[in-house]
Structure formats: C-alpha cells, structure tokens
Design goal:
globular; 362 residues; mainly alpha
Length: 362
C-alpha cells in the first residue's frame, strides 16, 4: 500500500523515488508475500505444526529492519545497508532449508533456489551493479515463482471445483505447456542478464504464449459462477500478458518501453496474484465454498485496474495517469487491509491453501 506513495508526494521530498519504489515493491512486498506463502504451506509439506511463533516474529522484525535499512541507505555504510536488506531473506532461506532437510523432502528443495536468487538480486540492486538488468531479472524471478506455484494452485483449485459441480470432463491442464513456458522464461532471464535483448524478447514472448495456451484448457469462463476462484484466473491472466509485453518491449522499445511493460508483471501478475491468494484466508466459508465479500471484490478490481492504467500510461510524462494508477493501487490494498484485519480476530481456517476445502484433515 505504501510503495506507490512516492508518486503522490510533492517533488523533491524523496531523493530517489524510482529506486526506492522498485526495491520495496520487489523485495518488500514480494519478499513478504514469498515468505508468508512458504511459511503457510510448509506445515502441509512437512506434516508438522505451524512455524514457531519465535521464527515468525524474528522474520517480521528482520523484514522491518530491511525496509529501514534501504530507506536510510544514504546515512549508513553500504555494507550495513546490504546486511540489513538481506538478513530477512537469509534467515527465511535457512529456516526453509533446515525444515525441508530434516523432513527429507528432497523434491521441495527447489523452493530455496528462488530465495537465493532474490538475495543475489537484492545485493546487486543495493550495490548499484547493472541496476537495469538486475531489476528486469528480479521481476522475471517473481514471474518464475508465479509460474511454478500459481501454475499448480490455480488449476488445482479449478479442477476441484469443477469436480464438485460434475463438470470436469472438458477440463485440461497442459502441464507440458507450463514446463515449456517455465523453460523459456528461465532462458529469457539468462539472456536478459547477458544483455542479449533480442533473444530475451523472443523467449519471453514464447513463454507468455505457452502460458496462455495452457490457460485455455482451464475453462476460465466457467469460474464466473464462483467469484473467489475467478479472482485467481483474472490474476493469472497478467502473467502471460506481462511476459509477452516485456518481450515486445525488448524487441521494439519504440513501441512500448520496458518499465511500462514490467508493470504488467509487478502491479499486474505479482500484485493481483498476491491479493487473490491472501484474500482466500480472509474469506468466510459456506460449506465447501469461499464467499467473496464486496470489500475484497472492490479491492481486487482496484488493484487490477491500477495495473491496466499504469501500462496504458506508458512512458508518458503527464502525472495524471501515474497518480491515478497509484491511487487505485493504494485504495485497493487499503480495502484489503480492512477486510483482512477483521479476519485476524477469529481462528484461521485450516487448511488455508487446500483446493479441497470440504475434505477432512489427514
């Protein structure tokens, strides 16, 4: 909610609003969302109870230290800034790795790799080394997480709902398309890091096309009858769109600027997917259905539209569309916060992320 406020403040208050905005949206917002998801999903993977309260408290405090460290980076030595901003990711990665190793979950060890990637991207961004390419690769890393995690969650939720409605016969999840899309995305990220813009652009457009082709089998149009599920599909739609737009910007920068295109992946894919998934924990339940409240629906609509407005603004120097996009984003997350704070007053429903809400616990 705070990250876009730099565009609503008078000029001259912030010394580097673009750098702060980029860092906090990726490593503040995105880092917190990644940690929250992993800590919530970890008990289902390991069969143990929730993460110890002391670990959660320590990670929360380290996350706050990271935000203050980057905000005060001009007043402290660079090594102190780097230590402050990376501490949260270091402890999170170490805890997740330890839990997976002790539980012998070798197939889940891959989740540590993106955390290491975020640590590396954060260090490069803080140091100022290859800032443009680092920012692009950091965004693509989150796109990879959405592809891997969201690419499992969205079709699982959809298949489960269609099975309960006895209409699953025409549901298709081309996982091979998803794997090819992830492969193209990873290759595009490597090409972007190597400053091979044309190759990266082609690979990103290919990845977006493959992700969209996979989504065609999910029968998204049927989810209009289940609004809580519809949010996930509308959020996922930003992933192939964002990858295609980023590839187009690399291939034809005179048509679309890269910063404008990347907002389809940050504000669009990252923002709406995080809101759609976190909203599930704040929704009331009626039997095996989640009920989408008008407040949460309005929050999602505002965030979704904010991304659309920001991309349409392109590289325009006019402040009106940029301020409007920021206002929509801030208002949407403020509404989400109001709805979510109320949910904290009651016990958390378990399991939080299960596709089979009505199924008995193991």
């Amino acid at each position: 909610m705070v990250a876009p406020l730099v565009w609503l403040l008078p000029d001259g208050i912030a010394t580097d609003p673009v750098g702060w905005h980029l860092h906090e949206l990726m490593f503040g917002t995105g880092g917190a969302a990644a940690g929250g998801y992993l800590l919530t999903a970890l008990p289902a993977w390991t069969g143990k109870g929730p993460a110890p309260a002391g670990i959660v408290l320590a990670l929360s405090l380290l996350w706050i230290v990271g935000r203050l460290g980057f905000l005060l980076s001009e007043m402290v030595p660079p090594i102190a800034t780097a230590a402050a901003t990376s501490a949260y990711l270091v402890v999170l990665g170490a805890f997740i790795l330890c839990e997976l190793l002790t539980s012998r979950l070798w197939s889940r060890l891959w989740v540590v790799a993106p955390i290491l990637g975020l640590m590396l991207a954060d260090g490069l961004l803080v140091s100022g080394a290859a800032q443009g390419r680092t920012g692009l690769c950091g965004v693509l890393l989150f796109a990879l997480l959405i592809s891997a995690i969201g690419g499992r969650a969205v079709p699982a939720f959809t298949r489960s709902w269609l099975e309960r409605r006895k209409t699953v016969t025409d549901f298709r999840d081309g996982r091979w398309l998803g794997r090819l899309g992830i492969g193209a995305l990873m290759a595009g990220g490597v090409a972007a890091l190597a400053d091979a813009g044309t190759a990266a652009g082609i690979l990103l457009v290919l990845s977006g096309t493959l992700q969209l082709a996979r989504m065609a089998g999910w029968r998204s149009f049927r989810t209009v009858h289940y609004p809580a599920l519809l949010l996930l599909h509308l959020a996922w739609l930003w992933l192939p769109a964002g990858l295609a737009l980023a590839g187009l910007a690399l291939l034809s920068p005179q048509t679309l600027t890269l910063p404008a295109a990347l907002h389809a992946l940050t504000m669009g894919a990252m923002g709406t997917m995080m809101l759609a998934i976190m909203s599930r924990a704040a929704m009331a339940r009626q039997g095996d259905r989640l009920v989408l409240s008008p407040v949460l629906a309005s929050a999602f609509a505002l965030v979704w539209l904010s991304a659309l407005i920001r991309i349409a603004a392109g590289s325009a120097t006019a402040e009106t569309p940029l301020r409007l996009a920021a206002l929509f984003w801030v208002a949407g997350w403020a509404l989400f916060l109001c709805a979510h704070l109320r949910s904290l007053l009651r016990p958390a429903p378990r399991p939080v992320f299960s596709a089979r809400i009505g199924a008995p616990s193991p």
